[in-house]
Amino acid sequence: MPTARPLPPGHSHSRWAVLVLAASLASLAGCDRSQGPDPTLVEYIDTLAAVDAHAHPMAWVAPGQPPDTDFDALPLSGIPGFQVPVGLRPDNPAYRIAQEALYHIDPTDTGSVYVEALDSARSATLKEKGTGFASWALDRAYIRYMLANRIAMGSGLPASRFGWIPFEDALMLPLDIRREAARTPDTQALYPLEAKLLARYLRDLGLTRIPSTLRGYERDVVAATLKKQKDAGAVGLKFEAAYLRSLDFEPADSGVAAAIYARYARGGVPTHQEYTTLENHLFRVIARDAGSLGLTIQIHVTEGFGSYYSERGSSPLLLESVFDDPSLRSTNFVITHGGWPRVRETLTLLNKPNVYTDISMMDLLAEPRMLVDALRLWLGEWPGKVLFGTDAFDGGAAQGWEQVAWVASRNARRALSVALDGMVDDGEITPARAREIARMVMRENALRAYHLSLP
Ligand SMILES: [Zn+2]
Q1: What does the alpha-carbon distance between residue 408 and residue 52 come to, in Å, rounded to a whole number?
Q2: Which of 27, 194, 196, 221 is deepest in the core (most CB within 10 A)?
């Protein structure tokens, strides 16, 4: 998730502690489903070396150097202030638990004592680990390999531990974006970031402006950029389109799209309908090229963020016509964040052979029982389609990306333990199968979905 803004105080208890305690009490009381999470299964899952299928790790920045700005194509710091769910707020107690585990911060510290202790412990660790900080953070969360959603990779993110997922929305937006941007106060801030990114992609290709024909654009900009990214180590691609527009990329007539492109390639502002037609066409062009390069596509599908974010426009089912396009069947798609909270819609799409989902961010914001329920819903039918992910983002010293990764990893593993343990208790699977599914979710499904073999 893009970086959020500071928020009002949230709640003050660890929701996970309550769920695990409830399971233990049920066990003590000899209730139905009385086993609680089997401690050997919990321990097994807690220490599985995972593949994190979606995150925003920060690059190492030497003292005195400018800050890392490549961690997201659409950082939300420029849009009007907005609220985020309690699980994402920096004052959530979960981050204090991470700070105790990672930096030995006394959980009873408060006020300036706490702030100074955290600042100095974290700075000392950053200094001591240096370019090894990010790999250290992965080790602490039992993450073997992390897919890094970044504009570009950076120092301290070695290919042995991090796979690159660049952003492609900008490639759908070659024409003047002013009318699209004017739609909401959020989009006013976000579209210019895409225009800036496209300019960077053009510069990287040695171009000063877009070609005059759509055919030329598809070849010399779209295909050339994807090829360049693949050659530079990309293992997948990311779309954040739901922050900009509805996810219904309906089929578009290529002749009509070409005419729209030609009309405005050298100036002028397309109508919303014209731009939508061109975007719909280009989305599928990018997806087709991605498939031929073996690059899996991540699509942001969830309930936010921003106070003008279109919830109706980010429904998983809107993607069905893309998933059902026969020419895109060799492109793998991942519905990131599980399409949360529309997990039942996501379920209906997992029967498409090339569609997967990940639990990134769900393991930070979803109510714990609901995350367990979502896992059981999906794993009962499609155990090969569900991927672990954290969405680790950087929210400053008190919510560093390394802490977010730690929290999400812990939450995800606990939910998976409770879900699989329940499936064993209910006689759906054997204990051995539970461990097998745990390995699939934490690691193997991601390797298959992204055509990866670990370095
Ligand atoms: Zn993200």
Answers
A1: 10
A2: 194
> How far, in Å, is the centroid of ligand 1 from the Cα of 360?
8
Q: How many angstroms is it from 88 CA to the middle of ligand 1?
A: 13
Strands 333-336 and 296-300: parallel
Structural domains present in the chain: 26-89+124-449 (3.20.20.140)
User: How many angstroms does the Cα of residue 111 sit away from the middle of ligand 1?
Assistant: 30
Report CA(438)–ligand 1 centroid distance (Å).
Answer: 23
Q: Give per-residue pLDDT as tens, 5-42.
A: 333 333 334 555 555 545 544 444 444 445 568 999 99
CA of 202 to the centre of ligand 1 (A): 24
Per-residue pLDDT tens over the stretch 258-309: 999 999 999 999 999 999 999 999 999 999 999 999 999 999 999 989 999 9
**Beta strand extents in 303-354 (DSSP E only):** 333-336
Measured in angstroms, how far is the CA atom of residue 1 from the centroid of ligand 1?
3
The CA 455 to ligand 1 mean position distance, Å, reads: 23
What are the CA-CA distances from residue 8 to residues 4, 85, 90, 97, 130 (Å)?
12, 11, 10, 20, 33
CA of 261 to the centre of ligand 1 (A): 30
Cα distance between residue 207 and residue 194, in whole Å? 17
The CA distance from 237 to 386, in Å, is 18
The answer to whether the CB of 298 falls within 8 A of the CB of 238 is yes
In sequence order, what are the beta bridge partners of 147?
Answer: 163
pTM over 0.90: yes
The CA-atom distances, in angstroms, between 72 and each of 69, 77, 132, 155 are 7, 11, 21, 16
Compute, in angstroms, the gap from residue 187 CA to the centroid of ligand 1: 18
